[in-house]
Amino acid sequence: xxxxxxxxxAVVGMLFGAENNATNSNQNALEFDEIIVxxxxxxxxxxKYAGSVGVLKEKDFKxxxxxxxxxxxxxxxxxxxxxxxxxxxxIYIRGFSDDERVIIKxxxxxxxxxxxxxxxxxLRTDTDLLKKxxxxxxxSSILHGSGAIGGVISMETKSAKDYLHDGKExxxxxxxxxxxxxxxxxxxxxxxxxxxxxxxxxxxxxFEKFGDNxxxxxxxxxxxxxxxxxxxxxxxxxxxLFTKLGADLGDSHxxxxxxxxxxxxxxxxxxxxTNLYTKGDSKDAPYNPLDNKLVQRDFVFDYLFNPADIDxxxxxxxxxxxKSYYDRHYTVGNMLNNNGSDMDLTYKNEDDRYGFALKNExxxxxxxxxxxxxxxxxxxxxxxxxxxxxxxxxxxFGGMPNTQKNYALYLQDIMSIGNLEFTLGGRYDKFKSxxxxxxxxxSRFSPRIAVAYExxxxxxxxxxxxxxxxxxxxxxxxxxxxxxxxxYYIPNPNLMPETAKEYEVGFSFKKxxxxxxxxxxxxxxxxxxxxxxxxxxxxxxxxxTPPPNPLNSGFxxxxxx
Length: 561
Description:
There is one protein chain. By secondary structure, the protein is mostly beta strands. A hairpin with a 5-residue loop joins strand 27 and strand 28. Helices cover 4% and strands 52% of the residues.
C-alpha cells in the first residue's frame, strides 16, 4: 500500500467546444439500464445476462490515474504486487492474472500476455482516453477465443464525438494531474465534427512522469528479506499519442481509422512488478536498475454498415496491425559476471500481430420468437521473439521465435419469448503454432447456453453454462534448455489445450423511480467451474540431473510443461 492523494486540474471548453463529461445530471437521470457488449458482442442488458460483468464508464476513470486502480472498484477484481510502478500493474480475476488466463483488448486488439517475462503489465493503456471498459468474469464469454478462462477485459477509446457537447463542432481540452508520491502529468487534445463535412477527427497527447514511491505503514520487506524498505527508487516516463479519424458516408456507412502509440522509458529493476530497488551498497540494493523501453503501437481500421430500414444487416469489419516490445539493457559495470568482470546485457521481447474480424447481427422473428442472431469470423497471425545478448553472445530460446495462427467461427442466437430470454451459442477455433522444437495443431468447440426469466417486473432469474479454453503457447510446447536458475526445460509437443467448464446461477432486481429519478438495482451470481488439462511445469526427476548452466550457478532439475 502507498500513501497517496491526488489533485486533478483541467481546463476544458477552449475554442468552440468542451469535453463531454458522462456525469451530466440530465443524462444520468435516464441511464437506468446498463448495456454491455463484450460478453455477447451484442448490446444486452447487464441485469438479464446470466454471468458476471463489471462496467466502467468515463466518470469512473476521473479519479484514477491508471486502469488497475479503476478496475479494482469492480467486485471480484484484485490488483497490486507492483510496488507502485506503472510498468508492473496487473489485475486478478477469480485468481487468474493478466499474465495467464485473462484476455485483454483495446478497441478489439489483443494485448500480449506480459511480453513473455519480467512480469510486465499487459494493460498498456491511458484511462483519460478510455470511453468504457467492460470486465467479463469467468468463462461465460465464449466469443473471444483462447485464453478467456479467467475472464475478458475489453476497453474502448473515445472519438471526437465523445468529447464534443451537443451542437458543438470543434473543441480542445487541456488537463493536468499532480499526485503525492512523485507523479505529475499533462494531457491535451483537439477534436472536430463539422456538420457540413462528414468527417470527425481527434488528436490526443499525454506525458506523465512517475518518481520514487514511498511505502505506507513504515515500509515493506526487501526482496532478500534482510531489511525493511521505506522507499522504492523509481523513474518512469510515459508518452501517449492517439489519433482517430472517422467518416460517415450517408446514414448507413461509417469508416474509422485510429493509431495508438504508447511508449514508456523507465529506470527500474529487472523484475519490474515485484523487485524493489534502493540506493546503497550491494547488500541494500541486490537488484540493480536497467534502462527499459516498453512500446505498444496499434493501427486499427473499422467499417460499419447499418442500414436503418434493414434489420437483417448490422455489419462490422475490423482489421488491425499491432506491434509491441519490451527492451531492457544493463549498462556496463552495473552488474558483474561470475568471473568478476563487467557485464553488458540486452534482452528484448517482441510481439507482432495482425488480423481481422467480421461479424453481422440480425434481428428477425420466427412466429412468436424474436431473434438477435450473431455470426462472426476471425483470423489472427502472431509472431513472438526473444533476443538475449550477453557480452555480445546471443542466447537461443527454445520457444522463440515462434508463429501462431488462429481461425475462428462463432454463432449466437438470443431468443425472446415473452418474459423468457434464451441464449444458445458456440465458437469453433482452429489454432496452429510453429516453434523451433514443437509445432501444435489443434481445434476446440466452446458452447454456451443461458436463460433469463423475468418472474415479475424487474426481477429476473438467471442461469448459464459455458465452456472455454486456452491453447498451449508455443513457448510452453517448445521450451528447451536452462532458461532460468532452477529448471532445465524439456519440450512437449503433445500438450493439450486447457478447457474450463463453468455454470452460473443467480438473480437480478431493478426498481426505477423510487424517489423521483432515483433507482435501485442488485445482481447476485453464484459460479462453479473446473479446468481440465491445466498447463503447469512438472518435475521430471526420472531424467536425472541436467548439465550445468553456464550462465547461472545453483541447483537445477529437469522440468516440462
